[in-house]
Amino acid sequence: MSRIVAGAAGGTPLKSVPGDSTRPTTDRVKEALFSRLESYDVLANARVLDLYAGAGSLGVEAASRGARTVLLVELAPKAVAVCQANAGLVNKALRNDLVSVRRGSVDSVLDSFAPVPGASAGKTWDLVFMDPPYPLTNEELAKTLEKVSLVLDVGATVVVERSTRSAEPTWPAGLEKFADKKYGETRLWFAEPVQVAAE
């Protein structure tokens, strides 16, 4: 059974999505990931976006470890129901409502945050988790990363989880990889926003 590894809600058991439609991040990978994020000092008071959330285990772990607000984004109805249940468990443990769930495709949700030309973005994020399904092509992922780059605050971190058999993501002009790490069959890619020179 999956659980919150550490933080204020540490030990809280989490529900899993039934069947094999999602690919949960193992506790070992989750522990290593969050140790790294804490060393980067990006968790405390962070605004966290968990895309392709599955059961929401990365987002709720961030909430337990000091994030300010967390949004879980998922499209599949069964996974959305599990996200809502896990958000409720963690919110109850933390005695607040900082974790919320939004049902929809990742791209449509990102489009709803994107800045209108001449206006500031409606939402900005400090930490974004992306654990897309393996069948998602690198070209599709690149388009989504482009949208992610538009809604990041200065100093944000983006974490992409992929199979070690998948190629490195194609990073848009507004994102730059600064680290990657292999854990068994999983590779984590870390990127940060960069200033794009005006043409």
Give the helices and strands, then pairings.
Elements lengths: L26 H14 L6 E5 L5 H8 L4 E6 L2 H18 L4 E5 L2 H8 L11 E6 L7 H12 L2 E12 L11 E9 L2 E8 L6
Parallel strand pairs: 1-2, 1-4, 2-3, 4-5
Antiparallel strand pairs: 5-7, 6-7
Helix pairs in contact: 2-3
Structure notes:
The chain is of the alpha/beta class and 199 residues long. It has a single domain, classed as Rossmann fold. Helix content is 30%, strand content 26%. It has 5 helices and 7 strands, in the order H-E-H-E-H-E-H-E-H-E-E-E. Strands 3-2-1-4-5-7-6 form a 7-stranded mixed β-sheet. Strand 6 and strand 7 form a beta hairpin. Helix 2 runs parallel beside helix 3. The longest helix has 18 residues. The radius of gyration is 16 Å and the shape is globular. The N and C termini lie far apart (51 Å). 39% of the residues are buried.
From the structure above, extract its key features.
7 strands; 5 helices; alpha/beta; DNA_methylase_N6_adenine_CS; 199 residues; 7-stranded mixed β-sheet
